[in-house]
Amino acid sequence: MSQDPSQLDLSQLAVDRTPATPSRPRVRRAWLTRYVLPVAILCGFAALFGWATRDSFLPAQPVTITPVVVSRAEVKQEGTPLFQAAGWVEPRPTPVLASSLAPGVIEELLVVEGDLVKKGQPVATLIDADARIALAEAKSLHALQKAELRRAEAILAAAKTNLEQPVVLQATLADSEALLAELERELNNLPYAIEAAKTKRELAEVNVRRKEQAGDAILGRILREARADLATAENTLQELIAREPTLKQQQQSLRQKRDAVAAQLQLLTEEKRALAEAEANLSIVEARVDQARLAVDTAELRLERMTVRAPINGCVLSLEARPGQWLSGVGASAPAGASAVVGLYDPKSLQVRVDVRLEDVPQVLIDQPTQIETAALAGPIAGRVISVTTQADIQKNTLQVKVAVLDPPAVIKPEMLAKVTFLAPPSPAVEGQEAKRPLRLFVPRTLVTSADGGDTVWIADLTAGVAIRRPIEVGRGVAEGGLVEVLSGLSPTDKLIVGGRESLSEGERVRVAGEERDAAGSMRSFPVSIESAQRTAQLADKAS
């Protein structure tokens, strides 16, 4: 059915041609898309390019690196034989020498090889004639010094008595006072004696005059006697007159002497000096007595040392000297071995010195169980690793390991050849779990720096491009190729700095110039008797 054309609405077909007015938000979006977004993209590309090429602009120390050597360890069951090595039996830790402590000539050997001896048992005697004479001389000198000591003690006692009771000075002072008193008495009587002498002279003069006046009435002899008496009286008078100054001078001297003796009695200087000298002399004599006593002790010790005695309980291993041989004794100037008489060892303390190949050394641990076989025994005996020597044999390409013989039988003797089987020690792995193959990390020994703070290595942080000094804990011993095991401080992905590390500082930027593979390598596998590096560290600590 057709519709009426007059009823059609054609206004819907009309086009509105009025220009539209632009809005402000559309103008802003156009500015962002035309300018801001391209500039941001360019800046991002520039920043990315700068970050990618930063190593070309920033200074960096060129270094060479090497990876950590990673080894895969295979866990062995406890008691599993690992390897065998040959060796020989010897005393542990060494033979013991019975040496002469004094010089002399051996008179007699009292033991032979293989004899069992007790500690202190005589094993040899030396000629002791000189030692006995020296002892007798020392004893006589000691007796002489003791007599000197008694005399010094007596002198000291007398000096003390003189100091406490100075009777000699007191007697001297009394004598001086008595002489002075007598002289003063004589001096006091001198005037009377002079008067008496004058009177006698006067009487003699009168007598002479009378006899002269008598003339021939008296004999000449009588006159001469009278004149002689006069002369005698005159001389006596003159003598008394002249004696007074002398007596006064003597009086003064006696007074000075009395005062000096009194002062000496008060000070007692000489007595104190004598006491000090007596005490010093006593000390000297006592020291000489001590020296003489020490000389006696030395002579007795030397005589006692003429008998060489065993220092331990053990068995005679070897005779180091023979009768008639001169021994120099123990001293700084004595040559080594010049005093040895007998070599001893303890039969209950033996060890086997084993030559272990260098490729088997990493499997050797302290306290590791072993089995020892010798031709003298029908079956093996138990042993235990006690030490690993530090110097290898360049000709045999071996390293010596010492294995203690546990409870050795009497048939085992030093120098016997033995074969030692090294067994796997107890493993910490739990039964029923699948055996793991733990990783062991090794680094070249030359890259480890040892200081007071411990061992460190230089690590290249490739992400940050810097050098880091990393503290590590290394195991005991050196593996094949100069490698040491790192117990802690490293991971398998770390890169060690080899070249250029001498002038590095912590956090300094580095640039990898190359990689060395000589000291490192890919994953290796060799059988060992541990499950992890922790087990190795525990055994090493126990050994130390």
Structural features:
24 strands, alpha+beta, six-stranded antiparallel beta barrel, 544 residues, conserved putative lor/sdh protein from methanococcus maripaludis s2 fold, 7 helices, OB fold (Dihydrolipoamide Acetyltransferase, E2P), disordered C terminus, 39% helix, Elongation Factor Tu (Ef-tu), domain 3, 27% strand
Account of the 3D structure:
β14 (381-393) and β15 (398-405) form a beta hairpin. The protein has 544 residues and is α+β, with helices and mostly antiparallel strands. 39% of the residues lie in helices and 27% in strands. It has seven helices and 24 strands. The chain folds into four domains: 62-73 and 432-543, conserved putative lor/sdh protein from methanococcus maripaludis s2 fold (Beta Barrel); 81-92 and 348-423, Efflux pump adaptor protein, beta barrel domain (Elongation Factor Tu (Ef-tu), domain 3, Beta Barrel), CATH 2.40.30.170; 97-127 and 306-344, OB fold (Dihydrolipoamide Acetyltransferase, E2P) (Beta Barrel), CATH 2.40.50; 167-267, Helix Hairpins. The two termini are 117 Å apart. The strands form five sheets. It has a seven-stranded mixed sheet with strand order 18-19-20-21-17-2-24. A six-stranded antiparallel beta barrel has the order 3-12-15-14-13-16.
